């Protein structure tokens, strides 16, 4: 009986660890083939597919925040984004004061204008 309990505990720990690192989330997105990176340009977001997206063309479906345990500059935020044409991908940014873009205000204003679907506390491991 102790063996079964230990195996269940190990399984639960693996499941919890599965969503604790940025690399594990990015790998999960890659495996689901939704790892298109939305990149900021002065004209809008692009995912390298020849299209430009404006905030009204997108919705943020999940948000993950990661905080460095010893260095605040390790903090990052990952937005999982869905476009009106069905393309799903992500945008990755440093979190808070460490966010650094050539046109800082442009990216920040752009991402704030994208509607958010649901709430963060409803995020599941299913991505």
Outline the structure in words.
The chain has 127 residues and is of the alpha+beta class. It has one domain (2-122). The chain contains 3 helices and 7 strands. The chain has helices at residues 2-17, 22-31, 104-113, and strands at residues 36-37, 39-41, 44-46, 52-53, 58-66, 76-83, 88-94. The strands form 2 sheets. Strands 1-7-6-5 form a 4-stranded mixed beta sheet, with no helix packed on it. It has a 3-stranded antiparallel beta sheet with strand order 2-3-4, with no helix packed on it. A hairpin with a 4-residue loop joins strand 6 (76-83) and strand 7 (88-94). The model is unreliable at 1-17 and 121-125 (pLDDT under 50).
SSE topology sketch:
Elements: H1 2-17, H2 22-31, E1 36-37, E2 39-41, E3 44-46, E4 52-53, E5 58-66, E6 76-83, E7 88-94, H3 104-113
Parallel strand pairs: 1-7
Antiparallel strand pairs: 2-3, 3-4, 5-6, 6-7
Throw out a few tags for this protein:
127 residues, alpha+beta, 4-stranded mixed β-sheet, 3 helices, disordered C terminus
For the secondary structure, the number of strands is 7
**Coarse shape:** globular
Residues in helices, as a percent range: 25-40%
- The number of domains: 1
Q: Regions with pLDDT < 50 over 5+ consecutive residues?
A: 1-17, 121-125
Rounded to an integer in angstroms, the radius of gyration calculated over CA atoms is 17 Å
Topology as a string of helices (H) and strands (E): HHEEEEEEEH
Strand content: 25-35%
Number of helices: 3
Average residue pLDDT:
77
Largest β sheet strand count, sense and barrel closure = 4 strands, mixed
Strand order within the widest beta sheet: 1-7-6-5
Classification by helices and strands = alpha+beta
How far apart the termini lie comes to: 34 Å
């Amino acid at each position: 009986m102790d063996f079964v309990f230990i195996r269940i505990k190990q399984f639960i720990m693996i499941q919890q660890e599965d969503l604790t690192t940025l690399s594990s989330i990015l790998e999960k997105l890659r495996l689901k083939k939704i790892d298109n990176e939305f990149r900021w340009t002065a004209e809008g977001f692009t995912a390298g597919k020849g299209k430009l997206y404006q905030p009204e063309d997108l919705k943020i479906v999940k948000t993950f925040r990661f905080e460095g345990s010893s260095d605040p500059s390790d903090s990052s935020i990952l937005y999982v984004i869905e476009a009106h044409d069905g393309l799903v991908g992500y945008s990755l940014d440093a979190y808070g004061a460490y966010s650094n873009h050539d046109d800082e205000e442009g990216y920040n204003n752009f991402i704030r204008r994208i509607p958010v679907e649901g709430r963060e506390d409803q995020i599941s491991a299913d991505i």
